[in-house]
Amino acid sequence: MPEATPNHQGVTAPALQLSNVRRRFTDGDRAVVEVLKNADLTLRPGEIVALVAPSGTGKSTLLHLAGLLESPDGGSIAINGRDVSSLDDKARTKVRRDDIGFVYQFHHLLGEFTAAENIMLPQLAANVPAAKARKRAQALLGRFGLAGKGDRRPGELSGGEKQRTAIARAMANHPRLILADEPTGNLDTGTAESVFQELLHVVRDEGAAALVATHNPALAARMDRILTLDGGVVREIAPEDLGVEAKPAEGGYPLATGDESC
Predict the structure, then answer these.
(1) Buried/exposed code over 116-126 (b: 16+ C-beta within 10 A; e: otherwise)
(2) Residue 259: how many CA atoms within 13 Å on its side-chain side?
(3) In what order do the strands lie in the sheet containing 32-43?
């Protein structure tokens, strides 16, 4: 019998909500730089939203705020309807562990552990019993076409297999929110296509929401919405603004990618 997984699609609260969020930094000459100015953003369960913005415009800052890696200077951040803006470090760590999954351009798997163990680790940190954690890891490995590779260490996996394992690890604790930073940027075209499809399907099937930062217009055009940062404000744009046409994710739109093979 397939493993039962939480399905958040009946939940009405947004997976992520930023309201009037402000973030400022002080540069070397003590001038204040306001990176985000009253930024608003809402992601609902099942949504996959692209974030497309040039370097230096606050994209990383926005992801860090959404992932509770930084604190805002003003405004509020809510995850699953709960205001998390002012939580202490211990409470923030618990929210990151239980409600947020992170996927990066580079997999950041722990080389001394197997693929299955890498997926088990966040579950064990959340006090999931080892047997249940292993069952979830094996189910996710099977879902990502890695059923026979759970006992391999990252050094024995291809680039695509590492990234699939990293996505499986991000989904291990049934998060409400996935934050992905260039998740296919280091993969070749064919591998990027399959990895993106798998990410899309697992996020939708589990009723999560995903915010995907990308420099790839073709990839962005295949998501539900496209957001950009304009003068520190989050703004929605159309695929045509990026010079591409909207294309359903299942349509096989070609992706501009790196050179690592599957």
Answers:
(1) bbbbbbbbeee
(2) 0
(3) 32-43, 16-26, 74-79, 82-83
Most confident of 32-36, 102-106, 258-262: 32-36
CB-based burial of residue 262 (10 Å sphere; 0-12 exposed, 13-18 middle, 19+ buried)?
middle
The set of residues, in sequence order, having a beta carbon less than 8 Å from that of 4 and lying 6+ positions away, is none
- State pTM to two decimals: 0.83
The model's pLDDT over 213-261, given as tens digits with 9 standing for 90+, comes to 988 888 888 899 999 998 889 999 888 888 877 665 554 333 333 333 3
CATH of domain 8-107+175-251: 3.40.50.300
End-to-end CA distance of the chain: 30
Measured CA to CA, the distance from residue 185 to residue 163 in angstroms comes to 11
